[in-house]
Design goal:
The structure is a single chain. Helix content is 38%, strand content 23%. By secondary structure, it is α/β, with parallel strands linked by helices. The chain has a domain of 69 residues. Helix 3 packs parallel to helix 5. The longest helix is centred in the C-terminal third of the chain and has 18 residues. The N and C termini lie far apart (40 Å). Bound molecules: adenosine-5'-triphosphate and magnesium ion. Magnesium ion binds next to helix 1.
């Protein structure tokens, strides 16, 4: 069904230790298909913990999370591995393999998931995605240590794109980048989203960018959803915590 959310959480809770705090606390949300969704919120509110549930890297204490209609925690490891080709992920630290060149890094998911594909074909696809991400051929045979932070994120994006995933997920894609690189990475994320007309999910601290790019905003607080809706609804919300976060987030970047 076209209106089925790509990601749906129902009363999702997570407690790391038996007597510990609930870092996800009955979190329910629906992330719409073919939209750009931003997840925002203060540090420590459970954004990355939630993302790990979506990626099937961790298991909730209770509740349900469905990705493309499937409950990941019911899957066998082989099924989960195959399912992950639907999800392209760019982690905050880019998470490249240090002992592989740029091109090898980007071709790695093809090697894993398209075993019958020839090496030449893999390299052709990897090169195409690197070029789309704005990297020239002169960098293809370099190792990650020789790249800047912004370039590494481009390689990570190319690697996330290589299997043409249904959902692209970014965790803090621009944190730690200088303003020029930040703008370039932001533009790349947006043009990639528009070119593919697929679903994009970005976890970010950068409120102005989130409000600029996103169709759908989710604000987490204390492991639950405090706000979920459109940008204009977010801008109008009279909830005290939303209003405070909005003012702080916009002031910080000098755009009040
Ligand atoms: N493996 C873990 N074991 C115990 N507690 C954890 C674990 N991972 C995260 N937490 C706790 O869960 C809470 C939410 O963490 P999370 O990383 O999701 O925050 P966040 O919203 O992504 O913050 P930030 O914006 O700083 O990235 C924090 O209090 C954190 O200490
Ligand atoms: Mg985080």
């Amino acid at each position: 069904m076209s209106n089925t959310p790509i990601i749906e959480a129902i009363k999702l809770s997570k407690q790391f230790t038996k007597d510990g705090d609930f870092v996800l606390n009955s979190l329910s949300l629906s992330i719409p298909k073919n939209k750009f969704t931003a997840i925002i919120g203060y540090s420590g509110t459970g954004k990355s913990v939630f993302l790990r549930q979506v990626l099937g890297l961790d298991r909730a204490t209770s509740g349900i999370v469905r990705v493309l209609g499937k409950e990941l925690h019911n899957m066998e490891p082989a099924e989960l591995n195959a399912f992950r080709k639907n999800l392209g992920v760019v982690f905050q630290d880019s998470a490249l393999f240090d002992d592989q060149t740029v091109l090898e890094n980007v071709c790695f998911p093809l090697k894993e998931h398209k075993r019958s594909m020839s090496e030449d074909k893999r390299k052709a696809i990897g090169s195409e995605k690197l070029k789309l991400s704005g990297l020239n051929e002169e960098h293809f045979n370099k190792f990650p240590e020789a790249l800047s932070g912004g370039m590494k994120r481009r390689v990570a994006l190319a690697r996330a794109l290589v299997l043409e995933p249904k959902i692209l997920i970014y965790d803090e894609p621009t944190t730690g980048l200088d303003p020029v690189l930040k703008q370039k990475v932001d533009e790349l994320i947006l043009t990639t989203h528009k070119r593919r007309s697929s679903s994009t999910l970005v976890v970010t601290h950068d409120l102005p960018s989130a409000l600029h790019f996103a169709d759908h905003i989710v604000m987490l607080n204390a492991g639950a959803v405090l706000f979920e809706g459109s940008v204009s609804e977010f801008l109008k919300s009279s909830d005290n915590l939303v209003a405070t976060f909005r003012e702080q987030g916009l002031n910080k970047y000098g755009k009040n």
